[in-house]
Design goal:
heterodimer, A: 415 residues, 7-stranded mixed β-sheet, 14 helices, B: 162 residues, Sufe protein. Chain: A, 6 helices, globular, disordered C terminus
Chain lengths: 415, 162
């Protein structure tokens, strides 16, 4: 079990209250808090180890290179991947765009189809729509069931004609919390089309559940550092190196080339081919420290903590008056994000009242407008959990919701 | 009183709980606009009836947070019966107030003056402006000789998105 009281002391931001109240941070799905060990690692780089990477031959530069590559290696280890397949990007959005530009636009042709789902974050949707438009590709979307799960029967029909050559699916929904059976989906896509490439958005999964990419058997996986307790400004596309070998560079310039003449250039090896220019060095070092922090806690323990706590939050919210919780009922099928709506009160008003009480939740459409339409909502409130949350965070949430309901209650008969 | 409590003062809550001129239709309407704010998911239908150069009637309907709904309600009371050019001037007055400027027409703004504090909450400014921007668009739609118009506020409902 996690010692949450001790863990909370590791997160500097959590030490700052709001108007005399304890900060109740229920928004790790938007951005996780940063533990001190990450700040320390980045401080050491800026304070004592500052230099560019991959260029200088002096010891300081070699140390910076080792730190940067150490971040890559740490992430590869954390996800059970080959470091040669880890392209460090700005965030998960850039990782998805890299696949869209480098692979989909390069290899898919009119007549080919892309499979996605209605629960995707815009980041795992729009780059592929854009590519589809450019290349004349067909788009197909897997629908969801009543309780917010992918309809695999429908997916099987959608791939049956063998034209789906690329699939983009999220591992864990940032709205519904649903953990998708990506290995099963990948298998059924490949059963219909053996050379199909399966891309997974792991932004909401990697920070919360153990991920072993070797076992998951997908072609590429996008993550972002700031949801993994790391800094902003870094993410990664973690792919099979062979997929990267066949991809066109997305950004060109320094660092990503092997040789340049006035007539042309040859590309560097993967993954460096996709990392043009001076990379986010401190951020890579911070990301390495962040995944180390999570490994030290143990991802099985992180998941167990969130399953137990999530069940408490789910039943607390369901039992409170006027609250409708979206997504799967059982924590076995879901991650740490819980979306809900409150009868008669707009999510923005809930969020403002909660914020005033030091309770941080996300309100809005969560960059998932197609899913919102499926749910018949314009917006939801989302409370999301991480290692620093505990059962004592539920009461302030419920009290704030009750206060908002009292404040915004309308007469039974509205005008 | 916290800043938030100042924001949600009684007058605003009253307009939210008992909205004025909130209706799904308007008898004899001359123009109908639909405005949406995709960032918040707010939707607003606004209808106007114009007689002899005056705003003879206005009705709004839609879905949104308390600030957007209450602001539209207070607006309808402040503008009904005024010459349309005067209404457009008052829209500009409210818009400037949302950008932190002191309003010159306190009395004319009436209950809408209560939204002055919203200027301190940048993310809510677009909510308070939604009805006002829809009203301006409805009048301009009428002036163009058109009957309906739909606008999506990609930048959060401010003034420069036409």
């Amino acid at each position: 079990m996690l010692d949450v009281a001790a863990l909370r002391r590791e997160f500097p931001t959590l030490q700052h209250g709001v108007g005399g109240r304890r900060l109740v941070y229920l928004d790790a799905a938007a951005s996780a808090q940063t533990p001190r060990v990450v700040l320390d690692a980045m401080e050491r780089y800026y304070g004592a180890g500052r230099s560019n990477v991959h260029r200088g031959v002096y010891p300081l530069a070699e140390a910076a290179t080792a730190g940067y590559e150490g971040g890559r290696a740490a992430l590869a280890r954390f996800l059970g991947a080959d470091p040669r397949g880890v392209v460090l990007t700005k965030n998960a959005t850039e990782a998805c765009n890299l696949v869209a530009y480098g692979h989909v636009r390069r290899h898919l042709r009119p007549g080919d189809a892309i499979l996605s789902t209605v629960m995707e974050h815009h980041a795992n949707m729009v780059p592929f729509w854009h590519a589809a438009e450019a290349n004349g590709l067909e788009l197909r979307h897997v629908p969801i069931t009543e309780d917010g799960r992918l309809d695999l029967g429908a997916a099987r029909e959608l791939v049956a004609d063998g034209r789906v050559r690329f699939a983009a699916v999220t591992h864990v929904s940032n709205v519904l919390g649903t953990i998708n059976p990506v290995a099963e989906l990948a298998a059924l896509v490949r059963a219909a089309r053996p050379d199909a490439v399966v891309h997974v958005d792991g932004a909401q999964a990697a920070p919360h559940i153990p991920v072993d990419l070797a076992a998951l058997d997908v072609d590429s996986y996008a993550v972002t550092g700031h949801k993994l307790c790391g800094p902003t400004g870094i993410g990664a596309l973690v792919a099979r190196p062979e997929l990267l070998e066949g991809m066109e560079p997305f950004l060109t310039g320094g660092e990503m080339i092997r040789d340049v003449t006035l007539e042309g250039a040859t590309w560097n090896d993967v993954p460096h081919r996709f990392e043009a220019g001076t990379p986010p060095i401190a951020e890579a070092i911070g990301l390495g420290a962040a995944v180390g922090f999570l490994e030290d806690l143990g991802m099985d323990a992180v998941r167990a903590h969130e399953v137990e706590l999530g069940a408490v939050f789910l039943s607390g919210l369901r039992d409170a008056p006027g609250i409708e919780v979206h997504g799967p009922e059982d924590m076995a099928d879901r991650g740490a994000a819980i979306s809900f709506t409150v009868e008669g009160v707009h999510p923005h008003d809930i969020g403002a009242v909660l914020g005033d009480r030091g309770v941080c939740v996300r309100v809005g459409h969560h960059c998932c407008k197609p899913l919102m339409r499926e749910l018949g909502a314009t917006a939801t409130v989302r409370a999301s959990l991480h290692v620093h949350n505990d059962v004592d965070d539920l009461e302030p949430l419920l009290e704030g919701i009750a206060a908002a309901r009292a404040m915004f209650a309308r007469p039974a008969v509205s005008a | 009183m916290s800043e938030l409590e100042q924001l949600y003062q009684e007058l605003i809550l009253d307009h939210y709980r008992s909205p004025r001129n909130r209706a799904p239709g308007l008898r004899g309407e001359d123009a109908h606009v639909h405005h949406s704010n995709p960032l918040c998911g707010d939707e607003m239908d606004l209808r106007v009836r114009i007689r002899d150069g005056r705003l003879d009637g206005v009705a709004f309907d839609g879905e949104g947070c308390s600030i957007s709904q209450a602001s539209a309600s207070a607006m309808t009371e402040a503008v009904t019966g005024r010459p349309v050019e005067d209404v457009l001037g008052l829209v500009e007055e409210f818009r400037r107030m949302m950008h932190g400027e002191d309003p010159a027409r306190d009395d004319d703004l009436s209950d809408a003056l209560a939204f002055r504090g919203v200027a301190r909450f940048p993310v809510r400014v677009k909510c308070a402006l939604l009805g006002w921007m829809a009203l301006r668009d409805a009048i301009e739609t009428f002036q163009r000789g058109a009957g309906t118009h739909a606008v999506t506020h990609d930048d959060g409902g401010d003034d420069d998105d036409r």
